[in-house]
Q: What sequence folds into this?
């Protein structure tokens, strides 16, 4: 399959190691990555959307119109981008009056969006279009014995009638993708909790992040698996903040799914930037004999 | 009228609330529909709400009630309770009336932004996107970091185009039935 790579902001700017993992692992699944010039922030589905919903929809429509002009669908690698572009694509397809209003804005820059672009987080297309067999075949170093606790995050799955990925109360998709690498999935009590990043409050984000991390720490899993850079930052940098403020070292290393897949496909921890993480996945790397410095 | 954030006290037994039909229409206008009125206060939105679980002052059912009554002051005041919403969309999943409380809260946040009471971090992210087309700042060290990983340079964003798109709408552009009311 061939689709437009929507990198978003956080991954290319803050976590380029995740972009490395995407660009290295997807071609081995037969996915052709198309880079499209001119894409902006999706834009942000929480703060920017709150400041002006029509501005939010207009910038999303501009990104969608660039893809439409190229005649290709979009794959995302961040749950926030998935939320914005999926909802925008849904609204602009279903609501003709709204689409016309946004198109009057787009006409200012000589663009138009007709409503034909599909947007999916790449994990969804790996299950739907690539298939788990092909994913398993790409593995050269199975992550045998490695245990992964999953954090689905919110915007991959919800709202389910727009996202249409999985049952948000009993999702299977990430478990299937992790199992294909040879690792096993460990259930934990707070697997449905939000990371808390969207709350503006002195306590709430940290409280939610802590609850998820403590729930995973109790399972003894080697790492936590995430598919969103915003969740990742909550659990990576956020874990240091928790250690400093509460004096509690949870030692739950968050790992982006495509870094796990990269390891299973034989990439080195350094290539995947795992040594840059604030909480490096030491026991994971030790188990597969790829310990980093 | 008491000027405090909503508590778990049922509104009927809490401080008196002044029903304000003009402000109520402002919320409905911001939402672009009347589906909010189908909220029958069942509380299905509360049970799995992570903010309600961890913050005693946050209750999506009470936020819905106050919005329906047009009692916006407590909601959109500086440091208002609406900003504690995590945007997780669980209430959207649970609501049997398809009221979408998270979207109501987002509409209330937009009203707070119009009133200039949005938190600084919200304004900062929005300004970054308006000014640079990106939500995160690009540091000078990034180019080398990307090159070291064998990644192509960060592609430029046409910021002039974004500025044109985000300029306020002229009256002539506005449709007869706007999806949300514009500020005067």
A:
């Amino acid at each position: 399959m061939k689709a437009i790579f929507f990198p978003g902001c956080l991954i290319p700017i803050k976590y380029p190691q995740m972009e490395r993992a995407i660009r290295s692992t997807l071609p081995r699944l037969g996915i052709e990555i198309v880079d499209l010039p001119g894409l902006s922030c999706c834009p942000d589905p929480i703060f920017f959307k709150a400041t002006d919903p029509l501005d939010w929809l207009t910038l999303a429509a501009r990104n969608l119109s660039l893809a439409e002009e190229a005649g290709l669908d979009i794959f995302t690698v961040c749950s926030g981008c998935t939320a914005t572009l999926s909802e925008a694509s849904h609204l602009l397809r279903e609501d003709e009056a709204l689409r016309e209003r946004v198109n009057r804005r787009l006409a200012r820059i000589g663009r138009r969006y007709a409503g034909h672009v599909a947007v999916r987080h790449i994990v969804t297309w790996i299950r739907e279009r690539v298939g788990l067999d092909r994913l398993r075949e790409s593995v050269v170093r199975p992550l045998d014995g490695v245990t992964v606790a999953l954090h689905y995050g919110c915007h991959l799955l919800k709202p389910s009638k727009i996202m249409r990925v999985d049952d948000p109360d009993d999702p299977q998709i990430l478990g299937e993708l992790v199992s294909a690498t040879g690792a096993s999935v460990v259930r934990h009590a707070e697997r449905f909790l939000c990371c808390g990043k969207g709350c503006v409050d002195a306590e709430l984000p940290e409280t939610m992040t802590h609850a998820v991390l403590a729930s995973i720490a109790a399972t003894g899993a080697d790492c936590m698996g995430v598919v969103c850079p915003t969740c990742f930052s909550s659990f990576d940098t956020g874990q240091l903040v928790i250690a400093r403020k509460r004096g509690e070292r949870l030692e739950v290393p968050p790992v982006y799914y495509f870094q796990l897949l990269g390891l299973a496909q034989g990439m080195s921890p350094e290539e995947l930037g795992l040594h840059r993480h604030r909480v490096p996945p030491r026991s994971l790397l030790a188990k597969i004999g790829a310990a980093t410095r | 009228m008491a000027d405090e954030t909503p508590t778990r006290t049922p509104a009927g037994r809490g401080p008196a609330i002044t029903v304000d039909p003009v402000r109520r229409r402002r919320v409905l206008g911001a939402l672009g529909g009347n589906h909010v009125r189908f909220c029958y206060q069942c509380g299905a939105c509360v049970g799995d709400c992570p903010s309600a679980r961890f913050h005693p002052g946050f209750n999506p059912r009470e936020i819905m009630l106050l919005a329906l009554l047009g009692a916006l002051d407590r909601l959109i005041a500086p440091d208002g309770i609406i900003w504690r919403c995590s945007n997780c969309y669980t209430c959207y999943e649970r609501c049997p009336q398809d009221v979408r409380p998270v979207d109501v809260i987002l509409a209330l946040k937009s009203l707070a932004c119009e009133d200039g009471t949005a938190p600084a971090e919200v304004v900062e992210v929005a300004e970054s996107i308006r000014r640079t087309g990106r939500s995160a700042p690009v540091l000078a060290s990034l180019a080398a970091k990307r090159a070291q990983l064998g990644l192509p340079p960060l592609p430029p964003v046409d910021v002039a185009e974004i500025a044109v798109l985000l300029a306020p709408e002229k009256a002539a552009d506005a449709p007869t039935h706007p999806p949300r009311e514009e500020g005067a």
In short: Chain B is about 45% helix and 0% strand. The CA atoms of residues 19 and 29 of chain B lie 17 Å apart. Residues 120-169 of chain B form one domain. The longest helix of chain B spans residues 101-114.
